[in-house]
Amino acid sequence: MTAWENARRRLLVAAALLLVGAVGTVAGQQSPASHQTHALQASGPVAAAQSALARGDAAKAIEILSAYLEVYPKDDAARLRLGQAYVVAGQNDKGEAEFLNVLNAAPANVSALTAIADVYQHEGQLDRAEAMLARAAKASGGDPQIRMQRAVVLARLHRFQEAQSALSHLVPPKLPEQRIAYYRLKASVASGLGNLSAAASEMEKALALQPQNDGLTMATAVAELQSENWRRAASLAEPLYSRTADPQAGLVLLEAQLAQRADFHKTLESLHASQLKPSEELAFRQRLAEVLITHEEFSASIEELTRAVELDPSRSELAFNLALAQFKAGRLDDARGSASKCKALADTADLEDLLGDIQEARGDNLAAVRSYQAAVTLAPNDEKYRLSFAMEFIRHQNFDAARAVLKQAEESWPNSWRIQLALGMVEYFAGTSEEASRILLHAAELAPEPETALRYLGDIQLGQVSPPAPEATERLCEYSDRHPQDGKLQYYCGALLFRRDYASGDKTHADEILRRLHAAAELLAKDASPRCQMGRAYQWVERWQEALQESETCVRMDPDAADGHYRLAQLYKHFGQPERARQEMTLYKAASDKVADQNARRDETMKTFLFTIQKEAPDRK
Predict the structure, then answer these.
(1) Which end of the chain is less packed: N or C, by CB atoms within 10 Å?
(2) Distance, first Cα to last Cα, the chain
(3) Closest to 166 measured CA to CA, from 193, 179, 147, 149
(4) How confident is the model at residue 607, as a pLDDT?
(5) For 433, what's the count of Cα atoms within 13 Å in the CB-facing half-sphere?
(6) CA pair distance 184, 222, nearest whole angstrom
């Protein structure tokens, strides 16, 4: 799931947690009339209007109050009651006009401010409602109920930071229903801010007040699921699903089981058999498939997506999702069939990109090229399709064609670090390491997070026979200085400094080199490379015992490290152990036979790169 999808889901969860909270908060408030500065007269026509309004006869109340205000036009309380009567009668525009009349005369009238905010809120004019509630909160001296109502509106506007401020230092209400609403509101705000553990904690407080409330149980299970407390989410959802057979509770249980890698098949079978209204089934099947796909259960999702396509065969996105799931599950012929049906409904760049992946996996390279090219034609302004097109050529080592595609893309996106990264790697695969390094340095300058480009740069520089490029060494060491916990970059810096100084015979930086390699070894506890490099460096500075220790560690961690065995043979010879030296030379020769040549090394790097660049591509499927 992408970052954008996670953010979108947090907003949806925040809205769900707010739902009951919003209703409870507003319903728990006193009506705006409770803020009146003086009471209506309790006798005569006004009392009759009050009685009519209490009976729900808004028309009679309007008639009485309109006549009364012709005689007493400055009675703000009566005008507020008239505005409320208009709202009850469904004439919001007239109600708003009466409230505005009051505010024209008394801009800080709290009852009028809250009443008109309520009108705006029900009409969906949330920005205007919030502005009125902000004025009411200030005019009332920070009335807790008004602050809560404002926080509800702010949460609905996704202005969660302001909602949190509105709720700060508020004491939870005493009445249970209002307290539940308060906790749900706080949970919604915390969820919207991405503080998912706090959201779950607030929902647990609400549930503790009404532990038998199914709605609260469900909302708390969702909050715990979002906070990745899978066990607690399952413990709430499982009895709820068993008791109510609510498919939504079943979905929460399924997701919790999938996340825990528990046996989910019984739950999935039950959900698949759910009896749903035709109007509900399609959305449910889609959601069920989404949960399965999120946890890479592609095969299991196919049945749900097949049913979704049956329910609405005219929706191309359903056919696309089915084709994608079939492709991910390795059912390539089915995927091609579904994609073809989808194409008959609507051809898109995403679909052609997927078709390219399917055809490539089926071994039909020519068809794959045509599909990737079609994706570029359909979306010429989207770089990811150019990258897919170029990657197809890279897979089959057609570097000239890949370079041509990327050079054309570079004209449209000169500041794309992904395109520069791909161009740099094409040069490396084609055998021009110096040009590759130059381009990768440029990619690192453009990238907001340059580590990917720098790692490839480090690999290329270490693989060269010649001393490393000064610009590359400087950039890698500068990045490692700013990121001291990045073990891989510490290793690249130390190793390149060593290679630079070994070639020149300059040992003045030996302590710095060893410090960096030691740091890399601690951070990369399972990687033999820093240990092997330290063995070389200690031997270089004639610290023989340490060289022996690190070299022995090197070959123990990586028995195929040919250079490590060769160095050990030299060290054992230095320490007067000829038999062990001969043994290491035998191991060196055996390991040398396994060492990949430069072309094989490039092939392995190519596989890694193809995976990385497609993972890094924006909005990649």
Answers:
(1) N
(2) 10
(3) 147
(4) 61
(5) 18
(6) 12
Per-residue burial over 297-335, b if 16 or more Cβ lie within 10 Å, else e, is bbebbbbbbbbbbeeeeebbbbbbbbbbbbbbbebbebb
Query: How far are the Cα atoms of 34, 41, 50, 76 from residue 38, in angstroms, in the given order?
Result: 10, 9, 15, 9
Residues 592/563, Cβ–Cβ less than 8 Å: no
Q: What is the chain's mean pLDDT, rounded?
A: 89
Say if residue 31's pLDDT is above 70.
no
CA pair distance 479, 11, nearest whole angstrom: 35
Instruction: pLDDT band for 14, please (50, 70, 90 cuts).
Output: low
Long-range CB contacts (within 8 A, 24+) of 304-313: 304/272, 307/281, 308/282, 309/338, 311/278, 311/281, 311/282, 311/285, 312/282
Return d(Cα 207, Cα 226) in angstroms, integer.
17
- Give the model's confidence band at 2: pLDDT under 50 very low, under 70 low, under 90 confident, else very high: very low
Q: Measured between alpha carbons, how far is 217 from 208 in angstroms, rounded to an integer? A: 10
CB atoms within 10 A of CB 241: 24
DSSP classification of residue 175 = S
The helix or strand, by DSSP H or E, that contains position 81, with its residue range, turns out to be: helix 76-88
Of the pLDDT bands very low, low, confident and very high (cuts 50, 70, 90), residue 275 is confident
Q: What is the pTM of this model?
A: 0.72
Residue 578 buriedness (CB in 10 A; 0-12 / 13-18 / 19+) = exposed
pLDDT of residue 465: 85
- The helix or strand, by DSSP H or E, that contains position 615, with its residue range, turns out to be helix 598-616
What is the C-alpha separation between 356 and 350, in angstroms, rounded?
10
Residue 11 clears pLDDT 70, i.e. is over it:
no
pLDDT in tens, 75-98: 888 999 999 999 999 999 999 999
With contact defined as beta carbons under 8 Å apart, do 252 and 275 qualify?
Answer: no
Burial bucket for residue 35 (CB in 10 Å: 0-12, 13-18, 19+): buried
